[in-house]
Every structure is written in C-alpha cells, then in structure tokens.
Amino acid sequence: MRPPSRPSLGWWNECLTGDTSFVTALSNLCRANLQAMHAILSVQPRAIFIQSEATEYFHAEEPSERCLQHTAFLNEKRFLAFDLTYGHEVKASLYTYLLDNGMQRQEYEWFRQNTVKRHCVMGNDYYQSNEHLVHEDGSTSESGEIFGYYSITHQYFSRYRLPVMHTETNREDPEAVLWLRKEWANVHRLKQDGVPIVGFTWYSLLDQVDWDTCLRGNHHRVNRLGLYDLDRRVRPVGEAYKSLVSKWKPELTSECYGLHIYNF
Prior knowledge:
This protein is of the alpha/beta class and about 260 residues long.
C-alpha cells in the first residue's frame, strides 16, 4: 500500500491543497514549460533553457517500515517536475500516484514524447530548508543541512545526466559570507569531480521584501538576503562575492573550466 503523500501547502494561485490539486498544477506547469520551449525553438533552434527547481532530500526520523516507506516515496516524488519536463520514466509507484490523482495515461505519454532535454541545463536551488525530516505520522519538518548541495546534486545529475547550474541560494547575515563560501566550494568540487557545472547564482542582487512569508501578504518586511541593500549599499556578502569573482576570474574564463557566476 502506498504511503500518504506530503500535503500541498496551498499558498499560491488557487490556494488548493491535496494530491489531485498538486498533480493538476504540476502537469499544467510542466506542459506550459515544454510548449514555451517548443515555440522558442521554432524561432531560435539553438536556444538553451535553464530550469530552476528545488534540490531536495527527505530523511527518515524512525526506522519503522511505515516511516521508511513514506520517506522513499517522497524521495521519488521530489523528482516529478524534472521527470515530466525531461521525459524521464517514473517508477511504478509514482505512475500509479499520477493516475490516481487525475493524470491520464495519454497525458503522461505526451511528456515522454515532447521533451527537448538536449536543449536544457538543469538548474537546482539549494537552501538550508531543502532537506526534510519525515516523522512517523507522515508529517515533515525542516532538518537543516545534513547532506548538503554536493551530495544531493550528484543524485540529480546521476538521474538526468544534464549540465547543471546552481540557480539559487542565500542566507542572512551574519551567516551569509560563510554560506557563500561553502556553496562555492561545493560547486567547485562537483566540477572537479566531473559534474558539468556551468553556473552559480546568489539570489538576489538586492534585498527582498516579504520573502519570509513567500509573498503571501503585504507586510513590507525587508529580508536582508541580497548582495546589496535596497539603498544599493553593498553588504559583506556582496564584497565576498566580488572578491570571489575577482580571484577566480582567470580560471572561470578558461576554456577548460567553463563556469559562470551570476546574481539576479
């Protein structure tokens, strides 16, 4: 018997929860993504697309069969957005889950037949909140960093075998500079170990507003996550980022290395 799924938060758009709403939204988003790529390629056949998806992992809190089974299911479910986008065949348990929650067989086959994977760079985001603890009752909570970006990105790369870009990460002061250095070290080590990393991004260039509540209300609260504050004064992490670019520029621009760093 398949374990219960992780409940949807219902924060954005229609604010619906439940597996059927999740599968519907996932299917619509992935289909729109693929249709947009096909439209762009009809005009510019050399286009390259960078998806951005959370890099996640679920850790079992208890050794019970129920907890381990649920954790295994969530660790397969985390791949669904990329699986549909890249036409990757899902396991039988996930296929049944999709069909049980509204996806039609021909709809699933459409994703398998319409992928443009060879034009894609797999963008993955990593924050402290990307790893989760799975409890005996099926609920989850943040576990904090346990495996880290290196180990989890290896899992995603092994599954899809695509070039990789670290598309999002950040921390507030006073941990921001240390976090930047650690994420960069992970990216550099992955590159050295043969994973085709092509880019790294600190998100964002400027501080954000109400990001701590995922934009679900107008609280006008500044989240000090940018390389610069909202008055465009550089933060310590911005200085560290500038130093990183300066020191690594000769290697970054070498033809053999081929890695770029960005901010948005």
